[in-house]
Amino acid sequence: TDIGSQKDRVVSEEEWLQKWEMGNTGFHKEQGHPLLQKYLDVLLNGRSGLRIFFPLCGKAVEMKWLADMGHSVVGVEISEQALKDFFAEHSLPYCEEPVPEIPGAKKLQSTSGNISLYCCSIYDLSSSIVGKFDGVWDRGALVAVNPCDRQRYVSLMITLMEKNSSYLLVTVSYDPNKHKGPPFYVPESEIKSLFG
User: Fold this and answer.
1) Residue 5: pLDDT band with limits 50, 70, 90
2) Per-residue pLDDT for 4 more than 70?
3) Average pLDDT in the 50-64 region?
C-alpha cells in the first residue's frame, strides 16, 4: 500500500483555522452523515444515556441529534468559530469557561449541560480532563490528522474509551498519488495495525 506523497504532508492548525474563516468547509455535512444514521444501532448497541465523543467535531449537526436522543456529547475542535457556529445554527444557549488544565483552552457548554465542546488541540485532552466515552463518532478525524500523527492520535483515542465502547470510523478510499489530502487515505491494513 503506497500512500505516495502523503506520508510527509503536514497541515498546520493555522491552515485549519483558515478553512473555517474562509468558509472552505466542504467536509461539513448540513444534513448529518448518512453512515451514522445507518450504523447508529452499532454505536448505541441497545444502550441509552451514553457519553459520545466527537473528535475534531467542527460544527457537526449529529452532535445535537444525539444529544436530543438523551446522550451526552463531548467534542473537540481547534476552531472556536466552528463551535460558536454550531450553537448559533441550532439556537442553543451556551456558556463559556476556561479549561484550567489547558492554557488558552475554552469549554463551550450548552446550558442544558448535555453538549460540551472543547476549543483546543485534541492532543491537549486526556481522560483526566474529559473522562471516558461509551462511543466515538470519528467521521473526519483520523483522515484529517497528519499521517505522522496517526499513532499519537489513536493512542489518545484508546485512552478515552470505556471497556465496551463502540468506535465508528469513516475513511475514504482513493489513489493517494492523485490527491494530496486531507482527507488523507488510510488503508484498512493501517487501521488494523493502529487500533489492533
Assistant:
1) low
2) no
3) 97
Please state the residue numbers annotated as binding site for S-adenosyl-L-methionine.
Answer: 16-27, 56, 77, 121-122, 139
CA distance 146 to 156: 15
Q: What is the pTM of this model?
A: 0.94
Q: What pLDDT is recorded for position 2?
A: 52
Binding residues: 16-27, 56, 77, 121-122, 139
CATH for 31-195 is 3.40.50.150
Domain boundaries, the chain: 31-195
